[in-house]
Amino acid sequence: MKSDEQFSRIIIGINKNIIRILISIMTVMLILGTIQLIFLEFKKITNPPYLLIEVSTLVEVFNLILIIAVGYELIKALLLIISSNTIPTVPIIEISIIAISTKIITLDIKQTNSNVIISLALLIAALGLSYFLLKFCKASQNKA
After folding, report:
1. What global pTM score does this model have?
2. What is the rounded CA–CA span in Å between residue 131 and residue 127?
3. Residues 36-79: pLDDT tens digits?
4. Three-state DSSP class for 72?
5. 30 near 75, Cβ under 8 Å?
6. CA 41, CA 99: separation in Å to the nearest integer?
7. How far apart are CA 103 and CA 70, in angstroms?
8. Which of 53, 102, 128, 144 could be disulfide-bonded to 66 (CB atoms 3.0-4.6 Å)?
9. CA distances from 115 to 51, 119, 126 (A)
10. What is the DSSP code string of 35-54?
């Protein structure tokens, strides 16, 4: 029994260190992505016509901003996993909803197959239902 607990602690420690490495890599990528976003915007507004941004550039910038925001949310989820002894399902579902919503916001409807749109709608519905059920079950357990 004692060796099983010790083995489990070692494996959990290794996994937490792997997650710490992933968080470090993602943080560096978020910093580089933010620098790229700033550089891209500076380059666009300093080229003629000055201080004017085209719609296609706005879409590109919004995509980058949303990707950076999703990366930040993913880092928060990984930090929650490290700091918790259990997997925090509700925050992970919230982050999943944010990520899928980001995909939907940046989706080019003209270039997208109807199957993709239906799949994303079903995925949002399933995540929303999961979120509702987890929150409802947790609220019911707290009342009991």
Report:
1. 0.73
2. 6
3. 989 988 888 888 887 777 777 788 888 888 889 889 988 988 88
4. helix
5. yes
6. 24
7. 10
8. 102
9. 39, 6, 16
10. HHHHHHHHHHHHSSSTT---
